[in-house]
């Protein structure tokens, strides 16, 4: 039994250790200056890896992401603007490569969808609350004149 417990503890330690390890890609690209380096890293953080699909170019270890990082860094050093670089990437890989897609006719639902669902949810909630209030008012027992007289008489007796 002790050997089993030690095995479980070792396995848990190994699993926890594996979660703490994080491999980061090492690029040996030499920028012309620090401003270009900052811009290049910022752009690579804002662009999604087309292969990994849920990591940016910096966090991804795939060969495609590495090639695209180098491409972004090269374009930054060539003096291209951020818009030109993003346009190049979106022309090549589609709007999916952007974490924050542009606001246009194709992405209208993407940008306005959450707002529409929130408004719809609030509207349904208000209708539900209003209906509940009306139902509770209608269901409240009505007192007859005889009941009111009895209540008044009971209250008067209690005061005296």
Automatic annotation (TrEMBL):
Annotated Pfam families: CcmH
Keywords, sorted A to Z: Heme, Iron, Lyase, Membrane, Metal-binding, Signal, Transmembrane, Transmembrane helix
Gene name for this UniProt entry: nrfF
Annotated organism of origin: Ferrimonas aestuarii
An example Gene Ontology molecular-function term: metal ion binding
GO cellular component terms, semicolon-separated: plasma membrane
Source taxon at top rank: Bacteria
Protein name, as recorded: Formate-dependent nitrite reductase complex subunit
Nucleotide-binding as UniProt keyword: no
Taxonomic classification: Bacteria, Pseudomonadati, Pseudomonadota, Gammaproteobacteria, Alteromonadales
């Amino acid at each position: 039994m002790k050997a089993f417990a030690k095995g479980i503890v070792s396995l848990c330690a190994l699993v926890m250790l594996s979660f703490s390890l994080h491999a980061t890609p090492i690029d040996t690209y030499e920028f012309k200056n620090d401003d270009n380096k900052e811009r290049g890293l910022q752009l690579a953080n804002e662009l999604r890896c087309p292969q990994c699909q849920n990591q940016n170019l910096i966090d991804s270890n795939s060969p495609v992401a590495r090639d695209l990082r180098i491409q972004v860094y090269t374009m930054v050093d060539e003096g291209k603007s951020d818009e030109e670089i993003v346009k190049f990437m979106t022309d090549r890989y589609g709007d999916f490569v952007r974490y924050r897609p542009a606001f246009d006719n194709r992405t209208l639902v993407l940008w306005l969808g959450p707002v529409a669902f929130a408004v719809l949810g609030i509207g349904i909630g208000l209708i539900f609350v209003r209906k509940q209030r009306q139902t509770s008012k209608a269901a409240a027992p009505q007192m007859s004149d005889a009941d009111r007289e009895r209540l008044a008489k009971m209250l008067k007796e209690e005061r005296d």
